[in-house]
Each structure stands twice: as C-alpha cells, then as structure tokens.
Design goal:
Helix content is 12%, strand content 19%. The protein has a six-stranded mixed beta sheet, with no helix packed on it. Strands 11-13-15-17-19-21 form a six-stranded parallel beta sheet, with no helix packed on it. It is found in: Membrane. Its main location: membrane.
C-alpha cells in the first residue's frame, strides 16, 4: 500500500517537474541575448534546400526555452544541448563576447545558412567542450588574422565539423601538427578556397576512417609543402590519384588504401623521399610508371587488390629497393 503511494507520488512529482520550466534561467537569458544580436532577413537564407523561416520569431519569454523552436534540452538537467538555427534568416555578428558561448553544454550546434556578416571565427567555439557536431557552413564567417582557431580542432568530442562555403575563411590551419584522429570523423571544407591553398604549416594529416567522399581536389595542393605523412585510408575517395601527391617534396608516408581510386598511377617525382606507399584495396588500373625507379628512398609499396595489369617487360622496380605486395 505504502509502496503504491510512494510510486504514485514519484510519478506525480515527475509530472509536475516535466510540466514546469526546466530551462535554467542563465541559459534562457543567454539565448535571448543571442537572439537580440540579429535582425531577420529572408535573403540571408536563400540557399536553403527546404523553406527557410525565422525560428527565433516563436521564441517567447513566457514559455520554457526548452520548447522553443530549434532548441533541445537535456531531459534530466534542463541544459540546452542542441541549438539548430540553420536556415533561420539571421543577419548579424557573432563576436567572442557573444552569449552563445555561455551555452556550455551544447553538443550539437547548427548555424548553417545564415549571414554572420564576416564575423571572425571565434576561438571561443573551442570552449564548447561537449560539442560533437558543429555546422557553420554557408554562414559568412571569416578567419581572424587568417587563422582558423586551433581550439576548434582540439575539441575533445567533435565528430563532424562543417566550415564549407565560407568563402572569406582565408585562414590556414594551426601551425601545430593537426591530429584529427582523436574523434573528428568528418571535415567539410568544400568551397573554402583560400584555406585549401594555404595549408602550409601542416606536417601530418590523418583522415583515416572518415566518411570522406569524392575526388581529391586539384587545388588541395600547393600549400602542403611541409607534409611528411598523409593518411587517407578507409574512406570513399574516388577518381584519379592526383599527381600533386607524388610531388610533395617531404612526403615520406602515403596511405591511400581502401578507397575507390581508379585510373593509372601518375609519374613519381625524381626528388621524392617516399619511404612507404599503400595503395591497396582500390580500383587502380594499368602499370606502375617507370619513374618508380626514381624513388630512391622507397622501402615498401603495397598494391594488393587493385586491377593493375602489366606486360611483364614493363614491371620495373629494382627488387632490393622496393617490396611490392
Ligand atoms: C527573438 O527574435 C525574434 C525576431 O528577431 C523576435 O520576434 C522574438 O520576440 C525574440 N524572442 C525573444 C524571446 O527574445
Ligand atoms: C544543419 O542544418 C542544415 C539545414 O537544415 C542541414 O542540411 C545539416 O545537415 C545540418 N547539419 C548537421 C550537422 O546536422
Ligand atoms: C561585443 O564586442 C563588440 C566589439 O568587439 C561590441 O561592438 C559589441 O557591442 C559587444 N557586444 C556585447 C553583447 O557586449
Ligand atoms: C597564406 O598564409 C600566409 C601566412 O603563412 C599569409 O601571409 C598569406 O596571406 C596567406 N595566403 C592566403 C591566400 O590566404
Ligand atoms: C594522433 O592521435 C592518436 C590518438 O589520439 C595517437 O595515437 C597518435 O600517436 C597521434 N599521432 C601524432 C602524429 O601525433
Ligand atoms: C573502416 O572504417 C569503418 C568506419 O567508417 C570501420 O568500421 C572499419 O573497421 C574500418 N576498417 C579498417 C580496415 O580500418
Ligand atoms: C628524372 O630522372 C631521370 C633519370 O635520372 C631523368 O632521365 C629525367 O630527365 C628526370 N626527370 C626530371 C623531370 O627531372
């Protein structure tokens, strides 16, 4: 009997709690302040696939902020864990002092398809330590002094980062070795032309086991002069392996295995310092280029599981130099 009573009061309590405001006051104030930094203008969201509309116009102080359009709160704590204001026709700046950065429990933040009017990509995004998904695409962000803040790449739980189509984002990557293998799974930099041209400081690039698709851009090239290791294995990259990869002056380890690369292998550069090359598990055709003889540092090259076929007279590498499997 008393157990039943306890249970009943427990459920009553739950009911009362969940029907009352659960959004903490500091969070709703931060959201309102954030809301006030914008004006609404339909032209800011012209490129949305779906119909854009100002989600914030339904935001109402008399209602629990967890019920506002675009907001999801943690059911237990009430903290705002998701903010999706994509395609919301917002125009205005997001400065480092923005109240957005007080929403410290955010796990998913989507500000895609708005007009933040050349706002510098603030290092404060890197303080939102719970972020798993950050989508700032098509939003007119620019780089602060040409730098994409390193803090963003150090977010411990970040799985996807979309900075695509911010064509003023003319920054280069952080100088330190950028090691994304911690948790970053998807990085979208399509349409960030100046950034791709200016990866000059990158020494180590590891994008294994991502979900990267499509061909490798020809323009991904000239900046990568410092790169010594490039690992792109286990993605869905296709098209030809661009020749610039084999011209990178300091590249010693190259792993392109388990993709859908096709076509013939391009010529290797005379000055190449490649030590290890793995192109296995692709759809490459034809022969090894003769210039493989120029690869004086080469210790191993793995070509298994391709469609390479060659008249025997053309198979060239000197056996003491290269282990071909
Ligand atoms: C948020 O902004 C919209 C449009 O700018 C406005 O209509 C709405 O009243 C604001 N809501 C709050 C709670 O500030
Ligand atoms: C962000 O919103 C856009 C538009 O609604 C959507 O296409 C995109 O998938 C969203 N991004 C994430 C990471 O959910
Ligand atoms: C944030 O800083 C900018 C200048 O950097 C200033 O114009 C703006 O008013 C500040 N906003 C707030 C909410 O303090
Ligand atoms: C590339 O980065 C350098 C700094 O290393 C900078 O001086 C230059 O302006 C950048 N170029 C572009 C096109 O952003
Ligand atoms: C990159 O990070 C992974 C996992 O955190 C670590 O095992 C690896 O040694 C790092 N590589 C470099 C070159 O820092
Ligand atoms: C390739 O990546 C997938 C996830 O994208 C993973 O499940 C699989 O184990 C990886 N395979 C190898 C050989 O690393
Ligand atoms: C590369 O080296 C080979 C043999 O040493 C030479 O015949 C060829 O002209 C060189 N190619 C270039 C582009 O320097």
């Amino acid at each position: 009997m008393s157990l039943l009573f306890l249970l009943a009061s427990f459920f009553l309590c739950q009911l009362v709690l969940s029907s009352f405001a659960i959004c903490p006051r500091d969070q709703s104030l931060a959201l309102v302040e954030f809301n006030h930094s914008f004006v609404v203008d339909a032209s800011a969201s012209l490129f949305c696939d779906k119909q854009s509309y100002p989600k914030t116009s339904s935001w109402n102080m008399n209602k629990d902020c967890c019920s506002w359009d675009g907001i999801i709160c943690d059911e237990m704590t009430g903290h705002v864990i998701e903010l999706d204001l994509s395609c919301s026709q917002l125009v205005g700046k997001i400065d480092s002092n923005s109240s957005l950065f007080q929403l410290s429990h955010l796990q998913r933040l989507n500000l895609s398809m708005n007009d933040f009017d050349g706002s510098h990509l603030s290092p404060k995004f890197g303080m939102l330590a719970s972020l798993t998904h950050l989508d700032l695409s098509w939003a007119d962000f620019s780089g602060l002094y040409g730098i994409i803040p390193e803090s963003i790449f150090n977010l411990p739980n970040l799985e996807t980062l979309d900075l695509s189509y911010n064509d003023q984002l003319n920054g280069y990557f952080p100088k330190t070795k950028w090691n994304s293998s911690a948790s970053l799974m998807e990085l979208n930099l399509v349409g960030v032309p100046k950034c791709l041209w200016n990866l000059t400081h990158l020494e180590y690039m590891d994008l294994q086991d991502n979900r990267a698709k499509g061909p490798l851009f020809p323009q991904f090239t000239s900046g990568l002069q410092n790169l010594n290791t490039l690992r792109l294995s286990n993605n869905s990259l296709n098209g030809e392996i661009p020749s610039w990869i084999f011209s990178l002056p300091l590249l010693s380890q190259l792993d392109l295995s388990n993709n859908h690369f096709s076509g013939q292998l391009k010529e290797f550069s005379n000055n190449s310092v490649l030590v290890g090359v793995d192109i296995s598990e692709n759809e490459m055709q034809g022969c090894l280029p003769k210039s493989i003889q120029n690869l004086v540092s080469l210790v191993w090259i793995i070509l298994a599981n391709n469609q390479l076929q060659c008249p025997s007279s053309q198979v060239t590498p000197e056996p003491h130099k290269s282990k071909i499997t």
